[in-house]
Amino acid sequence: xxxxWSFVASYIGPALWSSFDGxxxxxxxxxxxxxxxxxxxxxxxxxxxxxxxANHRHIHCIGAPLxxxxxxxxxxxEAAMAGHDFWxxxxxxxxxxxxxxxxxPHAGRLDRGARIFGNVDLYVxxxxxxxx
Length: 132
What we know:
- Helices cover 48% and strands 3% of the residues.
- It is built from four helices and two strands, in the order ααααββ.
- A two-stranded antiparallel sheet has the order 1-2.
- It is globular and about 45 Å long.
């Protein structure tokens, strides 16, 4: 089962605003997802699909939080919130699945699953594109 677009898009968003260029400026100030290098986008989508496939039953659980900044059906809003929290949790940004929005035991399972993926750093290459 592939992750819905809402999951992937909501993963990429925090990846950009929580990553900085060489001058300390958040990447989303001057970049968007169209600036991702092809291999970076492919890698991000691969991780999203792998995490979603392994955890979709915990993402779509009773009491799952809904993304407030994503329009659409409940299923897509749950997925969007999970995409957002997947990035924050895997990169140790001080928020994510563990911070009280997700019900237990799902929060613990999602948190452990995200941490397995480890941290990812984004940077702007000499080509002006964003790389992993």
